[in-house]
Amino acid sequence: MKTVFSGMRPTGKLHLGHLVGALHNWVKLQDSYRCIYSVADWHALMGEYENSHQMVDHIYDMTVDWLACGVDPERSIIFLQSDVPEHLELQMFLSCLTPLGWLERNPTYKEQLREITTRDLQTYAFLGYPVLQAADILLYKAQAVPIGEDQLPHLELTREISRRFNFIYKKDVFADCEAIMTPTPRLLGLDGRKMSKSYGNTINLSDTPDEIMAKVRNMLTDPKRLRLKDVGHPDECNVFSYYNTFLPGQVSEARLWCEGATKGCTDCKKNLAEAIIEYLRPIREKRLKVLADRGYVESVLKQGAEKARAIAVTTMKEVRTAVFR
Ligand code: TRP
Ligand code: SF4
């Protein structure tokens, strides 16, 4: 079986964007790969070093969400990055041979420095973000990495770094890894911008049915459709774009009632909210089970770290031999 590796920074409760953009795929991949999923707390700390006290809660909340969605500790390795110190050791080996220019040219890095103004990201660690990500992937010799588009430059860097390692030490320790892109189109936030906790425009996996109903009721619709008898333009309506994901069987019907002005936006949104509530029902139920068992989440991460570490230790032996012998 080939190995899949992916990680997510623990930034708190997950939302629908995480589910359709990543977690669904993670769950599905468990059928055909050995999957290793890491709670990337070191990566989170690079951005959140001033809010580090929240990390413990964020790690817990995110792990609960993973388990509720069906990431399965019986089949996959689920662990906390900082529980496996080999990540930092490999990062150091890789840092030594990574040219500064590769990191400074990284488009994701440049974009984040430009866009994130609430935190000072002009740090030594943050520049090296992709080196730690490369270490994550290479430590387990993963062949496939499910990621979003914004992470593609990091995967390209991973390949360049691993080739440079093999070239300098004249040993094929690492093989190339490829991206697995999620097929689902990206879900926008409730206000039509990118769905993100920092915009406050998310539907969280842990939201109650009432909360979901209220959030969907407040979604913006086609601004040209003010009254029931006005014809609507579904392609300019964020609510309609949600139908693709949550009510695929009603997309053409919804287009008809919108363009023909036969159903109002209030009903159209109520219909969507009910579908989302239903869609999240199994996750809600699983969450209750996970939360009922105190200590379960901790034991999952502990056992995951042991399994991850067994692999990591083996790779590090090879790395040290390649570098020093
Ligand atoms: N940087 C990734 C993100 O923000 C998270 C991550 C950390 C990751 N380590 C990884 C993703 C290794 C894939 C592989 O989404
Ligand atoms: Fe949007 Fe539905 Fe209203 Fe049309 S009827 S504008 S799709 S909310």
Short description:
With 325 residues, this protein is mainly α. Helices cover 55% and strands 7% of the residues.
Key phrases:
325 residues; mainly alpha; Rossmann fold; Tyrosyl-Transfer RNA Synthetase; 2 domains; three-stranded parallel sheet; two-stranded parallel sheet; 55% helix; 7% strand; binds tryptophan
Which residues form runs of ≥5 with pLDDT under 50? none
Spatial order of strands in the largest sheet: 1-2-3
**How far apart are the termini?**
31 Å
Structural class, by secondary structure, is mainly alpha
> Per DSSP, what share of the residues sits in E-state strands of 2 or more residues?
5-15%
How many domains, as an integer? 2
What is the count of DSSP helices, taking H or I runs of 4+ residues?
Answer: 15
Bound ligands, each once: tryptophan, iron/sulfur cluster
Largest sheet, described in full? 3 strands, parallel
Global outline: elongated
Number of strands: 5
Named CATH architecture of the largest domain:
3-Layer(aba) Sandwich
CATH superfamily of the largest domain: HUPs
Overall pLDDT, averaged?
95
**Helical residue percent band:** 55-70%
Give a written overview of the molecule.
It is a single chain. The protein has 325 residues and is mainly alpha-helical. The protein folds into 2 domains: 3-187 and 294-324, HUPs (Rossmann fold); 207-287, Tyrosyl-Transfer RNA Synthetase (Orthogonal Bundle), CATH 1.10.240. It has 15 helices and 5 strands. The strands form 2 sheets. A 3-stranded parallel β-sheet has the order 1-2-3. It has a two-stranded parallel sheet with strand order 4-5. Strand 1, helix 1 (16-29) and strand 2 form a beta-alpha-beta unit. Helix 10 (209-217) packs antiparallel against helix 13. The longest helix has 29 residues, at 296-324. Bound molecules: tryptophan and iron/sulfur cluster (SF4).
